[in-house]
Amino acid sequence: MKSALVTGANKSIGLEVARQLAQTGVYVYLGSRDLEKGKQAIEKLKEEGITNVEVIQLDVTNDESVKKARTEIGKKTKTLDILINNAGIYGGYPQTALDATIDQFKETYDANVYSAVRLTQAFIDLLKKSPEPRIVNVTSSQGSITLHSDPAYKYYDYKGAVYLSSKAALNMYTVVLAYELKDTAFKVNAVCPGYTKTDFNGHRGTGTLEDAGKRIVKYALIDKDGPTGKFFSEENNPETGEVPW
Ligand code: NAP
After folding, report:
1. Of 157, 60, 163, residue with least CA distance to 104
2. 3-232, which class in CATH?
3. Which residue, 216, 220, 217, 8, is CA-closest to 111?
4. Is 158 in the active site?
5. Which residues does 103 contact at the CB level (< 8 Å), separation at least 6?
6. Which atom of ligand 1 lies nearest, measured to the CA of 14?
7. Residues 15-53 pLDDT 10s
8. Atom from ligand 1 closest to the CA of residue 62
9. pLDDT of residue 38
10. Each residue of 108-151: pLDDT tens digit?
11. Which of 60, 200, 208, 231 is 20 to 30 A removed from 12 (C-alpha atoms)?
């Protein structure tokens, strides 16, 4: 049985990814910074008949928490097949380049960028033992510098200096990581779930959790001939899914 760790999985897109992965038979470690919320998510999944899941306390901005999660998971398995770096924050307001504060940038980069570095470095040894290791960094098409420079892009006026630049940084980390792992069985991709109705945007998103989950799970289970080091947003390119950096 394959295994996966999904961060920020107590609700919204992370929970949906955990659900869909578990439904394909993957054993899922459901990361939740609040253990109680994570347990409630597990209960919800169990009511749906999904039992191949367990909660792991995991605050992606906290080195100790990540270390403890690694130790805990390491006692249960010698191999991790899939890492989904999903946890993320918007970063509050103002988001203007002129007024957003340095503290906002630090907090947001910690949750959206350094988290992926922490988790990847902490779990790389377990991932390397998988015959088909996959890392999906959950990004946003809004982290595309090319799209955001194009007035025809549908979210061109949705500028947010803190959040957008954090996802652009996560994208570059994805490219470099994929490059470093290019001669291995790893597939490392940045995937946008699409503008999805969640707490993240006060439920103003237009897409469903089901579609968001599918878009991420697709790259978590991509086969050995699949892409690596790419950026996908089906919402912005329904044909191939690939979008420019
Ligand atoms: P959400 O509803 O706000 O859920 C975010 C999840 O991340 C929650 O489980 C939250 O935990 C967790 N989280 C935040 N900070 C954390 C930390 N320090 N440690 C551990 N977990 C933490 O957001 P969402 O819409 O599901 O978004 C998930 C991902 O998709 C994010 O990376 C976001 O940038 C990306 N995305 C979302 C959209 C969209 O339209 N929704 C579009 C593009 C990309 P708590 O419950 O404890 O707060």
Report:
1. 163
2. alpha beta
3. 8
4. no
5. none
6. 26
7. 999 999 999 999 999 999 999 999 999 999 999 999 999
8. 18
9. 98
10. 999 999 999 999 999 999 999 999 999 999 999 999 999 999 99
11. 231
- The domain limits of the chain are 3-232
For residue 80, name the pLDDT band (cuts at 50, 70, 90).
Answer: very high
Global model pTM greater than 0.85: yes
Return d(Cα 145, Cα 58) in angstroms, integer: 31
The answer, yes or no, to whether any atom of ligand 1 lies below 6 A from the CB of 216, is: no
**200 CA to centre of ligand 1 in angstroms:** 6
Q: What is the 3-state secondary structure (H, E, C) of the chain?
A: CCEEEECCCCCHHHHHHHHHHHHCCCEEEEEECCHHHHHHHHHHHHHCCCCCEEEEECCCCCHHHHHHHHHHHHHHCCCCCEEEECCCCCCCCCCCCCCCCHHHHHHHHHHHHHHHHHHHHHHHHHHHCCCCCEEEEECCHHHCHHHHCCCCCCCCCCCCHHHHHHHHHHHHHHHHHHHHCCCCCCEEEEECCCCECCHHHCCCCCECHHHHHHHHHHHHCCCCCCCCCCEECCCCCCCCCECCC
Instruction: Out of 163, 173, 195, 219, pick the active-site residue.
Output: 163
> How large is the average pLDDT for residues 77-95?
98
